[in-house]
Amino acid sequence: MAVAERVLGQPVKRKEDPRFIQGAGRYLDDIVLPRMLYMAIVRSPYAHARVKAVPKEAALSVPGVVAVITGEDLEKAGLAWMPTLAGDKQMVLAVGKVLFQGQEVAAVVAETREAAFDGAHALAQVVEYEPLPVVVDPFKALEPDAPILREDREQKTNHIWHWEVGDRDRTERAFAEAEVVVRQEVYYPRVHPAPLEPCGCIADYNKATERLTFYVTSQAPHAHRTLLALVSGLPEHKIRVISPDVGGGFGNKVPVYSGYVCAVVASLQLGRPVKWVETRTENLQSTHFARDFHMTCEIAADRDGRVKALRVKTIADHGAFDAAANPSKFPAGLFSIVTGSYDFPTAFVEVDAVYTNTAPGGVAYRCSFRVTEASYLIERTMDVLADELGMDPVELRLKNFIPPEKFPYPSPLGWTYDSGNYAETLKKAMDIIGYWDLRKEQEEKRKRGELMGIGVSTFTEIVGAGPAHTFDIAGIKMFDSCEIRVHPTGKVLVRTGVRHQGQGHETTFAQIVADELGIPVDDVLVEEGDTDTAPYGLGTYASRSTPTAGAATAMAARRVRDKARKIAAHLLEASEEDVVWENGRFHVAGAPGRSVSFQEVAFAAYTNPPEGVEPGLEAVYYYNPPNLTFPNGAYICVVDIDKGTGQVKVRRFVAVDDCGTVINPMVVEGQVHGGLTEGFGIAFMQEIVYDENGNNLSSDFSTYLLPTAMETPKWETDRTVTPSPHHPIGAKGVGESPNVGSPAAFVNAVVDALSHLGVRHIDMPITPWKIWKILREHGIE
Ligand code: MCN
């Protein structure tokens, strides 16, 4: 096919958008089934307390309430606990005691949503608690006299696990011999993905067919089916999970939550559909949060700025249940990407996870697996080193980048990076923003007492969970899948094992198929989210859809093409070897006039298949990636700070991303805009805060601040392309990259603006109040 005609790499408009823009999307709460009941959950007001009594009658006496489920009921049914993604177990409804504010205590089922809430409210008034001492600080939780939170565990400690990776001895030696050592403590705050559509489900158990249809706003429908089968004991083939349009996920819709299990139990008991949809406050209080890493980073280097070793120690607050989105064999996930884009000869990393009386955590927020924390830490500390050495941050980075000729690059912490040209990417960002002119401008402004900063972040991401030997969920290996059915008229139905939440798969996966088969994008329909129709897959998160299901899609299309070639040879009365596929047609080599279109071949597959060839034209491909993909980027941010108010204004932000071969540049740009906006919110606004009694002080949008269009800066984006050598079309994931890379660029810019005052670090979120105080401490009015 002539390159100009290829649909891969074209900014095809998103096929899904007309229905979203017209309000015609079908989300979970739009679904109303006949005879449907509604469920509401009673939650603990205490962060740590014994539950003495749950007098159901209070709710049952409310008109319309038909059932109440308690932890005791579930315990009798053997359903009191469910597994988390980290392999810990979590109470479905409180049994004996509660461990965080907002924990699920009882479920109330009623004829209407209002009655369910009234019933839950009535019950909440009379649940008897005996408050216990609360610990919200992970360091205090590790002290010998701290209350033991998880009495259900054999280990009588709040310490969950210790993990280390790297070469301790070699790293110690490098530090002992180093000319320069910098050390920086960095806190990555607790944040929450807060998708606009909160979590919810409808459990619909049909007693006659003994089948459960489970509608859920899910990023991973097949994984949910398997987990529900494991938790409920229902046979998996009797469960159908349907994930309708998903109103944002960002990692929040990967876990199985208590509400899901309770709705299933209620539907099994009552033989009627049961809907549960949480409120915003419930979402912010009790679904899993992300980050909350207390990190110490040290870099050993030569005086000329060559890095020699990296040493990191981290305390991870995992809340009341260890729910870390961590389907890898490493408990700290992919935190070991912490050497970043730099050629460290050696490194050593330790992570300790701790229980506290806070919501279960360690889960994803547009990046799971701890890549965000790792990238932020290394990018922050490289700036501290640059400051120590009196070097410009870009010069330090250019000196230490892994050079292109070293790929595939074995990192000292065990990864093999696939490809990249970090210097090219950084130089492109510098050219676009006019880096050296900005430095001159900054110098001039400083002389005038004005505060301007330039922040750089040159991150390496690690995305695409698989491969299967490294990743699994509940033992299920992390591959992904695609099924392609070609109809007799040449129109194509594609189903994959992932589930988009706004990422545009209906368009980009159609582009992959259209490109491989030489047919119009509009002839391809992509469907995801129904476990009865889609092949098994592990879902959409970790920017894995393109590296796994995208690859499966290309490979399935190639299988279809291979069969189509056989049929074409039959139609052309030529041998298969002589048939060439070009410009969307099959023709006999050397005789382009003797050709058939893909549509003609599809028709023949059903009406006139060659002897010995099965009728029909379809293929399934399960793709187990040989490695992860390693996208990267160079982000540069320019800020001005108002001395009077401490307000930071992001004047410019240039993001150059390298996600390998680009399927759809417009979709990639949209992903980058979204991720940068989230990174901006994390850097300047968002934080889940608990008081010392374990009260969540950020449980609505007036206290947990998300950026709106009013605050969001203008993003300038561009790309470099180093294809992944092990992906069939060379693509790497991109969805998380901007959220991984941008927080450091923002913070580095603010610290740079204040570095001449001796400021080396400020923890996120960087609020005007924090800056204002720093300025006053330095006598700046
Ligand atoms: N793409 C492309 N070329 C590439 C790489 C990707 O055209 N080289 C396209 C893909 O085909 C896909 C989109 O970009 O349409 C994102 O692809 P990918 O990076 O594979 O990420 P996923 O589809 O797996 O999405 C996951 C990622 C994550 S981890 C979170 S969290 C996230 C995100 O994407 N949540 C989102 N983006 C989101 N966007 C929206 N609107 N809503 C969310 O909840």
From TrEMBL:
<dbReference type="Pfam" id="PF01315">
    <property type="entry name" value="Ald_Xan_dh_C"/>
</dbReference>
<dbReference type="GO" id="GO:0043885">
    <property type="term" value="F:anaerobic carbon-monoxide dehydrogenase activity"/>
</dbReference>
<dbReference type="InterPro" id="IPR012780">
    <property type="entry name" value="CO_Mo_DH_lsu"/>
</dbReference>
<dbReference type="InterPro" id="IPR046867">
    <property type="entry name" value="AldOxase/xan_DH_MoCoBD2"/>
</dbReference>
<dbReference type="InterPro" id="IPR008274">
    <property type="entry name" value="AldOxase/xan_DH_MoCoBD1"/>
</dbReference>
<dbReference type="Pfam" id="PF20256">
    <property type="entry name" value="MoCoBD_2"/>
</dbReference>
<dbReference type="GO" id="GO:0005507">
    <property type="term" value="F:copper ion binding"/>
</dbReference>
<dbReference type="GO" id="GO:0005506">
    <property type="term" value="F:iron ion binding"/>
</dbReference>
<dbReference type="Pfam" id="PF02738">
    <property type="entry name" value="MoCoBD_1"/>
</dbReference>
<feature type="domain" description="Aldehyde oxidase/xanthine dehydrogenase a/b hammerhead">
    <location>
        <begin position="22"/>
        <end position="133"/>
    </location>
</feature>
<dbReference type="GO" id="GO:0030151">
    <property type="term" value="F:molybdenum ion binding"/>
</dbReference>
<protein>
    <submittedName>
        <fullName>Carbon-monoxide dehydrogenase, large subunit</fullName>
    </submittedName>
</protein>
<feature type="region of interest" description="Disordered">
    <location>
        <begin position="716"/>
        <end position="735"/>
    </location>
</feature>
<keyword id="KW-0500">Molybdenum</keyword>
<dbReference type="InterPro" id="IPR036856">
    <property type="entry name" value="Ald_Oxase/Xan_DH_a/b_sf"/>
</dbReference>
<keyword id="KW-0560">Oxidoreductase</keyword>
<dbReference type="InterPro" id="IPR016208">
    <property type="entry name" value="Ald_Oxase/xanthine_DH-like"/>
</dbReference>
<dbReference type="InterPro" id="IPR000674">
    <property type="entry name" value="Ald_Oxase/Xan_DH_a/b"/>
</dbReference>
<dbReference type="InterPro" id="IPR037165">
    <property type="entry name" value="AldOxase/xan_DH_Mopterin-bd_sf"/>
</dbReference>
